[in-house]
């Protein structure tokens, strides 16, 4: 009977949803413990300048090793932390940790230290009243000069309300750099881009992927470097995986890039020994 069937399907659907919800609340509970018991750490992925093969900066990326399940990717647990609000204490820990590391690099490596250390900040953190004050406090506690820190936010996080933009302006006023992450995947207009205190624009990997195959995104990537030059933004190409892509980006005028072609995220103590490959124009031919 149709009615019974429909009901049965609804029951199955609900059970599946319950299971997912249970799984997510289990992860949320485990995450609470993770912060207190040393299960989280930061890796750092080099951002390099082209064509010289010099380290320009690093992006801090959080890693969670669950005691029973092993590594859980940030793509899986950051969205949960954002929903539960746990991203606020978690993000505070990440910011402090990264600033402490940046100050250590300055001490130990001097001129060879990464010139900027980038920290991802969620929309939820940006909406917390007084977040800029917290950034200021962390800089003072760690003794890190503000210009060494870059706060990285997605365009969606900045443009979804007035409060986030005001907080971002307050952070920029401290002397901290602002990067717009995953640029091109959200829905901000170029007009909004001008109203945002951004210094760096990170062109999303999805645009980089097909540029050497005559894909349609090559046009977007070429246009974005012109926009960045015009608005005095520093363009960073994200997710560069091949020498051919690097060469093509260099040919288009890009001076900064990040991706597995250059380096994977690595522990802090591996950064000093890292030497980026030089980008050759020949690879494009
Ligand atoms: P994102 O900020 O856009 O970071 C770049 C992601 O792309 C990283 O993944 C990085 O490992 C990966 N990636 C870099 N180069 C390449 C490449 O050439 N090929 C490919 N396939 N991937 C590449 P990860 O570390 O898994 O992080 C995923 C996302 O999770 C980040 O995207 C960011 O949105 C979020 N996330 C990571 N760490 C943090 C954090 O400390 N705080 C916050 N709020 N979010 C974070
Ligand atoms: Mg990022
Ligand atoms: Mg990104
Ligand atoms: Mg991304």
TrEMBL record:
Residues 24-279 form the EAL domain. This is Bifunctional diguanylate cyclase/phosphodiesterase. It comes from Actinoplanes aureus.
């Amino acid at each position: 009977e149709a009615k019974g069937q429909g009901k049965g399907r609804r029951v199955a659907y609900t059970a599946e949803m319950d299971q997912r919800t249970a799984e997510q609340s289990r992860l949320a509970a485990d995450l609470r413990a993770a912060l207190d018991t040393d299960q989280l750490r930061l890796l750092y992925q080099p951002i390099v300048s082209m064509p010289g093969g010099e380290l320009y900066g690093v992006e801090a990326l959080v890693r969670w090793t669950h005691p029973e399940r092993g590594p859980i990717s940030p793509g899986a647990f950051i969205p949960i932390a954002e929903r539960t609000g746990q991203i606020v204490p978690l993000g505070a820990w990440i910011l402090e940790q990264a600033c402490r590391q940046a100050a250590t690099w300055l001490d130990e490596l001097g001129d060879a230290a990464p010139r900027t250390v980038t920290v991802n900040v969620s929309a939820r953190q940006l909406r917390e009243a007084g977040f800029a004050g917290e950034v200021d406090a962390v800089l003072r506690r760690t003794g890190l000069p503000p210009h060494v820190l870059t706060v990285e936010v997605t365009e969606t996080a900045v443009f979804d309300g007035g409060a986030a933009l005001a907080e971002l302006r307050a952070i920029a006023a401290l002397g901290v750099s602002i990067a717009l992450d995953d640029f091109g995947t959200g829905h901000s207009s170029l007009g909004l881009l001008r109203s945002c205190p951004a210094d760096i624009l990170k062109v999303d990997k999805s645009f980089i992927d097909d540029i050497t195959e005559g894909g349609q995104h090559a046009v977007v990537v070429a246009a974005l470097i012109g926009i960045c030059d015009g608005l005095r933004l520093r363009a960073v190409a994200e997710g560069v995986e091949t020498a051919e892509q690097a060469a093509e980006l260099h040919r288009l005028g890009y001076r900064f890039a990040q991706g597995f072609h250059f380096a994977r995220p690595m522990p802090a103590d591996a950064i000093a020994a890292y030497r980026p490959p030089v980008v050759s124009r020949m690879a494009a031919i």
